[in-house]
Write a structure and sequence with these properties.
Number of domains: 1
Helix content: 25-40%
Keywords: Isomerase
Order of helices and strands: EHEEE
Strand order of the largest sheet: 1-2
Mean pLDDT: 96
Largest sheet: 2 strands, parallel
Shape: elongated
Low-confidence stretches: none
CATH architecture: 2-Layer Sandwich
Pfam family, one: Tautomerase
CATH topology: Macrophage Migration Inhibitory Factor
InterPro entries: 4-OT-like_dom, Tautomerase/MIF_sf
Domain 4-oxalocrotonate tautomerase-like: 2-57
CATH superfamily: Macrophage Migration Inhibitory Factor
Protein name: 4-oxalocrotonate tautomerase
Number of strands: 4
Length: 62
Amino acid sequence: MPIIHVELVEGRTKEQKKQLGEAITKATVDIVKVPVEAVKVIFVDMKADEFMEGGVLRSERK
């Protein structure tokens, strides 16, 4: 049973997550050859001040 964790900075819509989850599920079924019911996708929203890129908090990016 593949369990796929997706971490995103907050702000994505429910529809965006749904589309991404569907695409991840399809790719996993096609590549790993497991039944669609076996694929689990977990979304984790991170606050923009809890994620840093290149030494700059995402909440402070311009």
